Amino acid sequence: MNALDSEAFTLLGQHIIWSDMxxxxxxxxxxxxxxxxxxxxxxxxxxxxxxxxxxxxGHLTGSAGKQAVVMTVALYGWWQWNRGKGRGGDGRIxxxxxxxxxxxxxxxxxxxxxxGVALLFTAHPAxxxxxxxxxxxxxxxxxxxxxxxxxxxxxxxxxxxxDLVGVPLNFTNGYAFSGFVYVIYGALVLWxxxxxxxxxxxxxxxxxxxxxx
Length: 213
What we know:
With about 210 residues, the protein is mainly alpha-helical. It has 7 helices and 2 strands, in the order ββααααααα. Strands 1-2 form a two-stranded antiparallel ribbon. A hairpin with a 2-residue loop joins strand 1 (about 5-10) and strand 2.
């Protein structure tokens, strides 16, 4: 066990692990920066994945692998937002609702990905303690990050769906800090959803001829 896997403190009878605390605090910062459409959301997301990867590497191969995928998607998000920044006129990414085709593609990818990853986890029990909910959360996180990279409002809805399983799963597995953080995630997601929803409606409104930009 490395230092990141050691106990930081005890809260309400639950043992809080350093990696769990640091990684999830960085995750909260990531979500807040995403709400503000800040490009820095992606480096912080990458750092969060790196902390958890370091904590899991060597004894929880499956968890380390999942964080490697998260870091890869974070790099993709950085590239996408850096390429598209300024299109909204305020130097930041423009947000929008996904098309029905995009929604169907993401839903199909989430369903197929969850089944595929769950079967992998089931075949190799060392990769996960709870194959199906763990696969759901992992694939849902990747889909949410993809939607965020594309500036889709559905990103927040995907996070809400992940939260519905993430909160009870973390408490059940003894990751109390992750459970508490996921509750806060839920509040941030609702505020972020409202903000991006309003911004997408504003961006979709046509500019009248002769009106100030």
